[in-house]
C-alpha cells in the first residue's frame, strides 16, 4: 500500500526536485534589494519587503520622495549649507513606503525584510503597524543616535531583529541560475555599498 502512494516510484521516474533553490529569507531579501533598484537616491538605495505568516509578500517599498512631490525639484544631497537643502527632511524611507503600499488590511504579525537596519522614525512606524519581526542585512549606521534609539524602541516593544545575508554564489546549474548575470552584479554592487 505504501508504495502505491509514491507515484514517482511506480512510474520509474527518478527526477528529483532542485536542491539549490532560494530559501525564504534569501528570497525576500533579494526582493527587497530588487525593489531598491527603483530608488532615485544617488547615495543610498534601500528596499523593504513585508511578508505575512504564510510567507506571502504583502508590501514592498523603496526610498523616494513623497507622492506628487517632484523629485527633480527636491534636493538629493547629503550635505548643504542648510539641512533644508538636503534630502533628509523630504525622503520617505523604504520601510514607510512598504507599510503604506500594503495590499492587505494591515501588516500585524508580519515580518519586514529590509536592506538597512531601520532608523528610529521607521522603528516607530514598524511598532505602530504591529509588525512582529525585522530581518536586515546591513547595520552600517549602528553607532548613530538614530539606530541606538531604534534599538531601544524595538527592544522595549518586544520586536526581535536579526541579521541575514543573501548568497550570491552562482547556481550549480544554468537552469537554476536565479541570481545570474546582471541581477547578481546589481545585488553585489548594492550589498558592497551597504556593508
Ligand atoms: Zn527610516
TrEMBL record:
Give me the reactions it catalyses: 5-hydroxymethyl-dCMP + H2O + H(+) = 5-hydroxymethyl-dUMP + NH4(+); dCMP + H2O + H(+) = dUMP + NH4(+)
PROSITE patterns on file? CYT_DCMP_DEAMINASES_1 (PS00903), CYT_DCMP_DEAMINASES_2 (PS51747)
**Cited InterPro entries:** APOBEC/CMP_deaminase_Zn-bd, CMP_dCMP_dom, Cytidine_deaminase-like, dCMP_deaminase-rel, Deoxycytidylate_deaminase_dom
One GO CC annotation: cytoplasm
- Gene Ontology biological-process entries: nucleotide biosynthetic process
**What is stated as this protein's family in its record?**
Belongs to the cytidine and deoxycytidylate deaminase family.
Write down what this protein is called. Deoxycytidylate deaminase
Amino acid at each position: 500500500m505504501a508504495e502505491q502512494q509514491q507515484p514517482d516510484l511506480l512510474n520509474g521516474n527518478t527526477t528529483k526536485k532542485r536542491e539549490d533553490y532560494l530559501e525564504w529569507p534569501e528570497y525576500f531579501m533579494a526582493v527587497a534589494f530588487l525593489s531598491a533598484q527603483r530608488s532615485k537616491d544617488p547615495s543610498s538605495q534601500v528596499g523593504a519587503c513585508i511578508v505575512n505568516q504564510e510567507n506571502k509578500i504583502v508590501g514592498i517599498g523603496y526610498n523616494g520622495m513623497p507622492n506628487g512631490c517632484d523629485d527633480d525639484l527636491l534636493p538629493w544631497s547629503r550635505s548643504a549649507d542648510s539641512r533644508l537643502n538636503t534630502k533628509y527632511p523630504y525622503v520617505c524611507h523604504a520601510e514607510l513606503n512598504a507599510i503604506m503600499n500594503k495590499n492587505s488590511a494591515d501588516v500585524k504579525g508580519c515580518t519586514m525584510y529590509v536592506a538597512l537596519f531601520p532608523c528610529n522614525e521607521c522603528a516607530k512606524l514598524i511598532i505602530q503597524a504591529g509588525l512582529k519581526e525585522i530581518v536586515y542585512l546591513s547595520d552600517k549606521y549602528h553607532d548613530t543616535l538614530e539606530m541606538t534609539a531604534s534599538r531601544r524602541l524595538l527592544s522595549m516593544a518586544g520586536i526581535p531583529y536579526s541579521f541575514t545575508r543573501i548568497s550570491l554564489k552562482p547556481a550549480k546549474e544554468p537552469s537554476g541560475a536565479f541570481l545570474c548575470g546582471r541581477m547578481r552584479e546589481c545585488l553585489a554592487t548594492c550589498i558592497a555599498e551597504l556593508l
